[in-house]
Amino acid sequence: MPDGRTQVPVNRRRFLTGSALLASGAVAAPLLASCDAGSGGSGSDNGKTTLTVMYASNELTKEHIAAFESRNPDIKIQLIENDEARLNAMLASGKPPDFVRGAAVGSANNNARGLAADLDPYLDKSTVLKKDDLLPVNDNWRWDGKRIGAGPYYGITKDWSQDATLWYNKALFAQAKVPELSTTEPVTYDQLLDIARRLAVQKDGKTVTYGLGIEWQWGLSGPLFSMVLSQGGRIYNDDLTETDLTTAEAKRALQWLVDLAQSGAAPSSLNPLPDGADLSTFMAGRMAVTQDGYWYGGNFIKAPADLQANIRMAPAPVMGNKRVSPCYAGQGAWIPAKSKNKDAAWKLMEYFMAGPPAEERATSGWGLPALKSLLPKLPQEQPYQKEAYLTAQAELAYNVPMPDSPYVTTANWISTLNEYVDQAVRKTITVDVAAQKVTDDVNKLLKQGKDRIG
Questions:
Q1: Range of the domain at 157
Q2: I need a surface site. Which of 136, 140, 292, 299 has the fewest CB within 10 A?
């Protein structure tokens, strides 16, 4: 998911099919050793260290690079536009970039294969990036050889959001005479489905105003995992080699997704949005609630005053007794283990994750910062920004790492869920059958991944 502020904003969460490609390719097939790796590895230019960086140019901008080089006259940055296929080839050639864009959620695959450098020695010495200043979203980068959330850090997040939270339009609630959502207390998913049905408006058999959007076309794994975790359920076994979606918790979550799609109250595989995202429909006043993280508020900075006056952010819904508010990605950066310029790459890490670019991102409202010290810089000028700030702060207490196995990827999960949930939605199979088929298919992928990685 490109989540730079100058990118078309609606693309932000497309990490679900984008950032997982490197890991997906690694599980599905060997690295592309026969491809042309292009430029990479260490180099020098008139005595300068050439730092090869693979990142999105709308996030690590020309201005950022110029400022960094000015501060570090002995380092020259060679920027390569983010490209998973090229990265695979460079890794296979033994000449990787020195600094790479990537998501925290899904990083277990890289870490288990030894592709990423252990950053703890740098963190322990840094006066800029400190472990006690890292928000828990960074725990998704940690790997102790068996699971995420413990052990060394293998990357740092630049910005993130708790993606199960809800944004809603008060005016549409008032129009339908439905009580507004609380900005402090979560609704249940069952309540949310009922609210969505009441808010939806249909004309001539078509939905003209949606009650809810869950960014269906971006993938269902994030919402599903969140629902299961909220019930105290699990996605993987202890060694991350098997999944079971035939549990009561998983089948309840699958049933909810099917019920939502069949209600017609939300975009789904039955009635997908033409542009593949909620934003334009929500901005046009044709969607009452959208499940998107804090970053979504950046879209409203230049919205008409009447829309700004009616926008609010609510906590992540719950399906069980446990409040969870996870991040589905957490874009950031990692340093390849075979980089020849780790020290220079770490200087860029400090600058980009804790220096002026990080402050700039925080004040923009396009996502939460990954550092506790930058949270006060989030925008609070507009009423919706003030309330969203308070909601987001409260949600931090419920942030939990997303389940992540090194043997399967987000992209694998999305394609499998899309196939069988859609069949259940269209009533060609039951939810029970869908649960079993997802379980069987993902377990095959987990075995393949385990066999390859060892």
A1: 9-161+329-386
A2: 136
What pTM, to 2 d.p., does this model score? 0.89
* Residue 435 and residue 353 in one domain: no
SS3 208: strand
**How many CB atoms are closer than 10 A to CB 13?**
25
Q: How far is CA 208 from CA 49, 174, 264, in A?
A: 57, 17, 10
User: Residues 370, 137: contact at Cβ < 8 Å?
Assistant: yes
Task: Give the separation between CA 82 and CA 95, rounded to whole angstroms.
Answer: 16
Two tokens, residue 90: 């460079």
CA distance 212 to 230: 20
Spatial separation of the C-alpha atoms in residues 369 and 382, rounded to whole Å = 19
Task: Specify the DSSP element, H or E, that contains 90.
Answer: helix 84-93
**Is there a contact between 395 and 158 (Cβ–Cβ < 8 Å)?**
no
38: left (phi over 0), alpha (psi -120 to 50) or beta: left
Strands, E assignment, 301-412 = 311-314, 331-334, 368-369
C-alpha dist (Å) from residue 212 to 151, 194, 287: 39, 10, 6
pLDDT in tens, 335-373: 999 999 999 999 999 999 999 999 999 999 999 999 999
| Same domain (yes/no): 308, 190 | yes
CB 311 within 8 A of CB 301: no
Handedness of CA 419, 421, 423, 426 (dihedral sign): negative
**With contact defined as beta carbons under 8 Å apart, do 403 and 224 qualify?**
no
Q: Do residue 191 and residue 269 come from a single domain?
A: yes
Q: Do 176 and 320 lie in a common domain? A: yes
* Model confidence band, residue 43 (pLDDT cutoffs 50, 70, 90): low
* Structural domain ending residue among the three candidates 340, 357, 386: 386
Place of tokens 């939990």: 400
Query: 199 and 273: one domain?
Result: yes
Sign of CA dihedral 139, 332, 184, 181: negative
